[in-house]
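Not sure how to ask, but would you mind making up any protein sequence you like and the C-alpha cells describing how it folds?
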Amino acid sequence: MQPTENALAVLEKRYFLPGENWDGLCKRVAKAVAKDPKTEEIYFKMMNDFHFLPNTPTIRNAGTDINGLSACYVIPILDSMESIFDALKAMAIVQKSGGGTGFSFSRLREKNSRVLSTNGVSSGAVSFMKVFNHATDAIKQGGVRRGACGGVLEVDHPEIFDFIMCKDDPKELTNFNISVGITDKFMDAVENNKPFDLISRYDGSVVRTVDANELFDLIAKQAHKNGEPGILFIDELNRNNNLSHIARIDACNPCFEQDLIPWLSCNLGAINVGSITTKDGINWDELRKIAWNGTLFLNDVIDLNVYPLKEISDVSSKARKIGLGVMGVADMLAILEIPYASQEGRNICRQVMSFINETANECSIFLGERDGHYEYWNGTAIKRRNSGLTTCQPCGTVGMIADASSGIEPYFSLAY
C-alpha cells in the first residue's frame, strides 16, 4: 500500500532518509529490527500495509548510525546541584537521540529553604523546571521533532500552588506537560473535608496546612482553563508496580501514558485498528496476528536499541518494558457506525484493548519460555519476557501517517 499525498508530506518532512520512499523506509526498519529473513518479511508487510507502526525514534533511526529507538524515558533528580545538572545532561543526550524525558521534581527542596553548603537559599523546584525547559529549547530531538518533557510534583510539596499555576501563561514552560502527583492521603483529605499538610523537602517539617478541597479545586480550575495540570495517582501506580522491588514510580514520559521507574525507557508501537475493520465487523484473527507480531517487533527493538546512557541500558535491558497500543479508533467506530462517545463505543474499545493485552501477554509468556524471563522478575508476577506490555499512547504524527493512508480521510485538516 502506498501513502496518500498527505501522508507523504509528513513522511518527507520527518521520516524519510535522503532518497528514501515508503517501501524503502519499511524495508530499512524491518531489516534492522528482525532477527531472520522470515520475520523481516512479516515486519515489512505489517508496516507497509499500515497495520502497525512503531514510535518515531524507531522509524527514523532503525538501520542508521543513531539506533536510539525508544520514545519514553524517566530520569531521576535528587536534591543536590550535582544531581540536577547530571539529569540535565542526561536529558540533552536522550533528546538528541529522539526520546522524550520525564522527571519528578518532588525531591527538590522548596524555594527559600536553607542550602548548608553555600549558606544560601534554594531557588526551588519550579525554578529548576524552567532551567530544563530552556535547555530543551536548544535541543531538537534527533533532528526530527522538538524536545518534550513531563514534569511531576507531588501534592504535598510546599511549592504545589506555584506548580499548579506555572503554565497559566501559555508562553511559559512550553516544552513541558505537567501533572500533580496525587496521594491516597490527599484524596482522603478531599473526600472528608480535612486539612492537608505541605511537607518540607529540606527537613520534613510541616511548612503549611491548607484546605484540601481548595487545592483540589485549583487543580480542576487550571485543568479546565489550560488542559494542565493533569493528575497522576502515585500511590495507585505503585500498588500495581511490578518493579516495586527495584524502585518506586514517581514520574512518567512527556505524554504521561507510560509510567516508568528511574532510568527505565520504553519503545512504543500502535496497531491501526481502523485498517482491520469493515462494515461486517473487526477482523479478530487479523488483530490477533498483528498484536502477536507487534509484541515480537517491540521485544526485538529492545535488543537492537543502542541506549544513550549506561544507566538506561542497564535498567531497560533488565526490565524489557514495551508499550503496544492502538490508533485509528475513530476510524474503526466510524466504519462500524458507532458513535465515538457512546457506551457501545466504549464497550468495543474495552473489548479490543483487552484482546490486544491478552494476545501480547500470551506472546510474552511464549518469549519468556523460549528466551528467559526479564531479569527484574521477582518470582511473583507472571513469568514472561517483558515487565510491561501495553499502553494507550497519543500517536501523533505516526497516527496521522496511518490515518492519511488508510483510505479514510482524517477527521482534521493537515494544515490545522
About this structure: The CA atoms of residues 279 and 336 lie 5 Å apart.
